[in-house]
Amino acid sequence: AMEKSYMSMFLLLIAISCVLAKDAGKKDTKETTVKPKLPQTLSRGWGDQLIWTQTYEEALFRAKHSQKPLMIIHHLEDCPHSQALKKVFAEHKDIQKLAEKFILLNLVYETTDKNLAPDGQYVPRVLFIDPSLTVRADITGRYSNRLYAYEPSDISLLYSNMQKALKLLKTEL
């Protein structure tokens, strides 16, 4: 509930500042015609040009019906490890290109599905789910104590794991 009230407060402030700006800028019409492209909030910075699903339920539905694998990134906005991974993920051209072949979801909260936390609820962690809706617990990172964690230096491993998730799909379905 805390976040909600912050959010509505934040929206209220935006609304107030927009109204003030409108009144101030009546003389100059140039500003009103140029609309800046709003960032796609669902990406939360993991790839603004990619299509991200809003909820876990929607992601599962789309994976099943599109026959694409699902990649789920659990992260937190104020976690430095999440931030560091997000930066290299968003800037990695090959990953961003390959990500188009997935249904994508990034979450800043835990779902009630225990299958998404095979070895605990830590962030950042990345899990793959195939279109039969099976969590691919076998696609892991390099840390034995946190199987689905990736550091920025593991970005090429994450890339090859994405390739693996797509390859498994071709051979198994």
List keywords for this structure.
single chain, 173 residues, mainly alpha, Glutaredoxin, three-stranded mixed β-sheet, 6 helices, 9% strand, globular
Text of the CATH class of one domain = Alpha Beta
Listing every helix as H and every strand as E from the N terminus to the C terminus, the arrangement reads: HHHEHHEEH
Q: In the CATH classification, which architecture of one domain applies?
A: 3-Layer(aba) Sandwich
Helix and strand content put the structural class at: mainly alpha
Overall geometry comes to globular
- Multimerization status: single chain
Helical percentage: 40-55%
Question: Average pLDDT across residues?
Answer: 84
User: Strand order, biggest sheet?
Assistant: 2-1-3
User: What is the strand content?
Assistant: 5-15%
Unreliable stretches (pLDDT < 50, length at least 5) are: 17-32
Could you give the distance between the termini? 43 Å
Largest sheet: 3 strands, mixed
CATH fourth-tier homologous superfamily of one domain: Glutaredoxin
Q: How many β-strand runs?
A: 3
Q: From the alpha-carbon coordinates, what is the Rg to the nearest angstrom?
A: 19 Å
Number of helices: 6
The CATH topology of one domain corresponds to: Glutaredoxin
Explain this structure to me?
This protein has helices at residues 2-24, 30-33, 56-66, 80-91, 93-99, 155-172, and strands at 70-74, 103-107, 125-129. The protein has a domain at 56-166: Glutaredoxin (3-Layer(aba) Sandwich), CATH 3.40.30. It has 173 residues and is mainly α. It has a three-stranded mixed sheet with strand order 2-1-3, with helices on one face. It is found in: Endoplasmic reticulum; Secreted. GO terms for molecular function: dystroglycan binding. One of its GO terms (cellular component) is extracellular region.
